[in-house]
Amino acid sequence: METEKIITGYRATIDHVKVGYPIKALTHMYTSFNNPDLSILGEIDAIPEVLRRWSITGDSHYCIEVVARSIEDLRRVLTELAKLGKLSTCVALSWRDKGTTPIEVDNSEREMYNP
Fold first, then answer.
1. Residues 16, 10, 53, CA angle at the centre, nearest 5°?
2. The domain that contains 57 carries what CATH number?
3. Distances (CA, A) of 26 to 3, 63, 67, 105, 115
């Protein structure tokens, strides 16, 4: 799977709570830019608390995952993001990252990886 570029890399998984970021939120952003990707991606990515961002379809342009040290810290992060567009935010009460992708493997490949 590495040869076919299905596996694109390896990384450590960090427990954000244990390193001082117990708050996780998802915010949807709507911008007034004609092509928001070209205008603001660098500014979104420059915010250290932004973990992931998705360019999406629907009523908003982006879904952005952020972490924060406190509610006051979350307000600061959201204030920075709000300079770029209108936000609709929800705070996660709990979460689980399965860390997997549902892929189908035929039996010959399964035997190759699990002898």
1. 55
2. 3.30.70.920
3. 34, 7, 9, 32, 41
Tell me how far CA of residue 80 lies from CA of 5, 11, 45, 60, 66, in angstroms: 36, 28, 12, 17, 12
Number of H helices, E strands in the chain: 3, 4
DSSP-derived secondary structure for 75-108: HHHHHHHHTTSEEEEEE-S-------------HH
**Contacts of residue 16, Cβ cutoff 8 Å, sequence gap at least 6:** 22, 24, 51, 67
Q: Which residues pair with 88 in a beta bridge?
A: 28
Q: Residue 34 gets which letter from DSSP? A: S
Range(s) of the domain holding residue 82: 23-91
Q: 25: closest CA among 61, 71, 62, 58?
A: 71
Task: Tell me the pLDDT tens digit for each residue of 61-90.
Answer: 999 999 999 999 999 999 999 999 999 999
User: Is the pTM above the cut of 0.90?
Assistant: no
